[in-house]
Amino acid sequence: MLRDLVLKNRSYRRFYQEVSIELETLRDLVDLARLSASALNLQPLKYVLSREPQKNALIFSHLGWASYLKGWSGPAEGERPSAYIIVLGDTEISRSFGCDHGIAAQSILLGATEKGLGGCMIATVKRQELSQALGIAPRYEILLVIALGKPKETVAIDKVEPNGDAKYWRDSQGVHHVPKRALDDIIIG
Ligand SMILES: Cc1cc2nc3c(=O)[nH]c(=O)nc-3n(C[C@H](O)[C@H](O)[C@H](O)COP(=O)(O)O)c2cc1C
Questions:
Q1: Distance CA 129, CA 177 (A)
Q2: Residue 12 alpha carbon to ligand 1 centre in Å
Q3: Ligand 1 pocket, Cβ-based, cut-off 6 angstroms
Q4: How far is the CA of 115 from the centre of ligand 1 (A)?
Q5: HEC states along the chain?
Q6: pLDDT-based confidence at residue 41 (cuts at 50, 70, 90)
Q7: CA distance 131 to 66
Q8: Most buried among 17, 52, 143, 164, using CB within 10 Å?
Q9: pTM of whole model > 0.85?
């Protein structure tokens, strides 16, 4: 069951933009992050939720999408995320956030997948500009933006040959291919 969820939990970058996500759904997803592991149990992460078209558009304009897909600058209008969860680090709780935000983001995306949604972690963010645009207080550092929506693309997992290329790519049918290294190539001892 968990394996199925992990397999289905791909990075999706094209969505049915018209399918909105309830505020309660976003809150449920953050609740999964809240219950996840945190170094020293400091729980320094805070969240900004967005589901309104105007706020979504503002966030979208600060994000970088799929740098390996040359000539594709991100989802077109109509295929953009219908919600975002911005993961912030509260510097008044801790100066460093370790891998807390990765763990939180994975919990959120697994929860989204279970609900029939999907998304993508985005670290390519114009952080300062986005902080200002949203009026986020300086004590909060933007760590990750999680784009969410009802996926409108197929993602296939391929095998990477030993020493092969792991770059993702999109075929002529629009299927997004994600090469993954083989188990025996990553267990080294
Ligand atoms: C920490 C982190 C940051 C990422 N940042 C971006 C990003 O800025 N833009 C983007 O399109 N995808 C981003 N991704 C998604 C990765 O490209 C994606 O995880 C990878 O291609 C593997 O695909 P998969 O998630 O379907 O396994 C990020 C993923 C992680 C874990």
A1: 32
A2: 9
A3: 10-11, 13, 64-66, 120-124, 155, 168, 178
A4: 20
A5: CHHHHHHHCCECCCECCCCCCCHHHHHHHHHHHHCCCCHHHCCCEEEEEECCHHHHHHHHCCECCCCCCCCCCCCCCCCCCCEEEEEEEECCCCCCCCCHHHHHHHHHHHHHHHCCCEEEEECCECHHHHHHHHCCCCCEEEEEEEEEECECCCEEEEEECCCCCCCCEECCCCCEEEEEECHHHHCCC
A6: very high
A7: 22
A8: 143
A9: yes
Q: Which two tokens stand for residue 125?
A: 């963010």
CA separation for the pair 162, 115 (Å, rounded): 35
pLDDT digit string, tens, across residues 130-157: 999 999 999 999 999 999 999 999 999 9
